[in-house]
Amino acid sequence: MQIVKYHVSVAATLIRLSIQSRLEYPFMLIGHVLANCVQWVAGFAAIKFVVDSFGSLGGWGYESLAFLYGMSVLSHGLAVILFIQTWYMAYCVVEGEYDMFLLRPMGVLFQFLFEDFNLIGITDMIPGLMVFFYGCAKVHITMTFANISMILFALIGGTLIRGAVWIFCGSLSFWTKSTANFTDMVGALFERVSMYPLTIYPKWAQVIFTYLLPLAWITFYPVKGILGMEGSVIPVPMAAVSLGVGAVMFVLSCGLFRLGMHRYESAGS
Amino acid sequence: MNIIKVNHLVKEYKKIKKEKGLKGAVKNLFVQDIEYVRAVDDISFGIEKGDIAAYIGPNGAGKSTTVKMLSGIMQPSSGEILINGMSPQKERKRVVRNLGVVFGQRSQLNWNLRLGETYDLLKRIYQIDDALYEKNVKMLDEIFQISEFIDTPVRQLSLGQRMRGDLAAAMLHSPEILFLDEPTIGLDVEAKYSVRKFIKEINARNKTTIILTTHDLGDVQELCRRLIIINNGKIIEDGSLDELADRIAPYRRLIIDFYHPAVVRHPKAELISVDEARAVYKFRKDEITAARLIEDISRTAPIKEVGLQEAKIDDIIRTAYHAGQA
Question: Are residues B153 and A24, on separate chains, in Cβ contact within 8 Å?
């Protein structure tokens, strides 16, 4: 209990300080609001165009697609708020940025993850919420306690999966010692797998994204569950499975980080 | 009792030799010419509680590598480190709780925010209770006047203020041991003075054990009872500055102004220059005392003024570096 209280107190301070830091540069916030709104709304307009022209996408109608897209942008926004610093893990290894955390009597990954709470990620949430509520209205989802819980499970699960993949890729830099990272590639993959129904991909890709690199659990399966589209073979709600997948992946990626930390060599000079 | 103990510490790096040009780059993908370099090569020493030790050596000698291993940032290739009886690698959190570390070229202060915000964070991370925190801030303010700039964003601090801020940050949790890696680098005379004053006061008030790496020999002369010189990864000297001076540069110079031009020789001193009425002698302090020399010379010619020069620390250290290389 004491340990939990301690970590919450430090995390809260780190979050407060990063918000204060970001507020030192308020114009950045405005720029991001504009850029992100344009990006996501344009992306959604493109989907609408495709569906209007062809009737459906991978067997999904326009209403369900709107909901899927909204869920994807929301978990993307949450992941960017919480985990954006993981994009720079390779840089941290090369530049010896972990030194400071190692000198303090606290877990390195914990300090690192909370050190850069990214307020600007909120700008992703604005268009995300817009499309999400639009989707909710279109699929006529009723906001019962069960539905809200499932949506929350799915969002947390999706956010954890994204964060885990970023931490995993970033931790590889302990071995590769290279500044090149997989963040861009992974970002494109997230977008393609989580914004469109998995059913538009060939069977082998569906298997990969379900079991091997379980990105389909970010949005596709949980949304299917929430919308009650076709019965699943497992008796557990898909959104709860997504939360479980996220938790397991997150724990595994933290393990890889710890393993990599043993190889950490600081930087020259 | 040794609060810091280092036994046969080694840090080996894998260095890959790169061949030139595109041809070489492609070849290196398949065949690598790996060379092992020892940045720290079998060093051993102990530091007693309350000591201030200078750890000096030319660039690339292995100073920072040693400090990083001592503070748990780097893993040694072999050998043993004990800080308060614990290994900083195996029991990192317990060791660093009692450790303050400042790297002169780096800062742990939050760049965008007022200095006090970083202190607030450290208070929580180290779980410093309010009474101790107040006491330490008050003490640091007495030595360092940190309250003058505690509300200034760190990015607007001068280098000297930033260094004071970093040193104070390292002392908030009252560590028993302080590692300072080039704390005076780039500082002006005034800021250097205040850093030295800080080191002296902290050591005197709290019996804090301090290891200091520096290129500024003024720091060494003013602060350190103990001097460890490292070169090419090996310790080449370990002792007090006086001992070292006695051993490798046991000479002093005596400058005498006579009333009238005179050439006076002495069997135990070398007359190295005569300019009108001024003569300069070089002598070994284990062979004759300055008082005796002056007395002898004054019997031959009346003396108006005398000056005594110790061997310069720069010369001593340079001699030591070269001796280590040979």
Answer: yes
Yes or no, beta carbons of A266 and B74 under 8 Å apart: yes
CB of B281 less than 8 A from some CB of A? no
CATH topology of domain B251-310: Alpha-Beta Plaits (3.30.70)
**Nearest-angstrom CA–CA distance, B136 and A82:** 34
Cβ atoms of residues B249 and B309 within 8 Å? no
Closest alpha carbon within chain B to A24: B112
Q: Which of B71, B103, B125 is facing A106, going by the closest CB pair?
A: B125
Q: Which two tokens stand for residue B11?
A: 């840090």
Cα–chain center distance at B236 = 15
Question: DSSP secondary-structure letter at A57?
Answer: B
Q: Look at residue A141 in the predicted model and tell me its pLDDT.
A: 87
One-letter amino acid of A87 = W
pLDDT at B247: 83
Give the number of other CB atoms < 10 A from CB of residue B186. 12
pLDDT higher at B96 or A63: B96
The mean of the pLDDT values for chain B is 91
Q: Is the pLDDT of residue B279 over 60?
A: yes
Torsions phi, psi for B184 (to 5 deg):
-105, 10
Is A13 close to B120, i.e. CB distance below 8 A? yes
Q: How confident is the model at residue B160, as a pLDDT? A: 92
Nearest-Cα distance to chain B for A222, in Å, is 38
Per-residue pLDDT tens digits for A145-181: 989 999 999 999 999 999 999 999 999 989 887 756 6
| Chain A interface includes B124 (CB < 8 A) | yes
Using pLDDT thresholds of 50, 70 and 90, give the confidence band for residue A269.
very low
Please tell me the predicted confidence (pLDDT) of residue A180.
61
From chain A, pick out residues whose CB is under 8 angstroms from the CB of B113: 17, 20-21, 24
B29 shares contact with chain A (CB less than 8 Å) = no
Contact A102 B105 (CB under 8 A): no
Assess whether the region B2-6+45-245 and the region B251-310 belong to the same CATH fold. no
pLDDT, tens digit, for every residue of A62-93? 888 889 989 998 999 999 999 989 988 888 88
ipTM score of complex: 0.85
Asked if A9 lies within 8 A of B124 by C-beta distance, the reply is yes
CATH number for region B2-6+45-245: 3.40.50.300
Backbone φ and ψ for A144, nearest 5 degrees, come out as -80, 165
Instruction: Please indicate whether, in this complex, the C-beta atoms of B71 and A103 are within 8 angstroms of each other.
Output: yes
> Which sequence spans correspond to the domains of chain B?
2-6+45-245, 251-310
Can you spell out the DSSP letters for A151-193? Answer: HHHHHHHHHHHHHHHHHHHHHTHHHH--S--SHHHHHHHHHHH
Q: What pTM did the predictor assign?
A: 0.86
Contact criterion met (CB < 8 Å) for A10 and B73: no
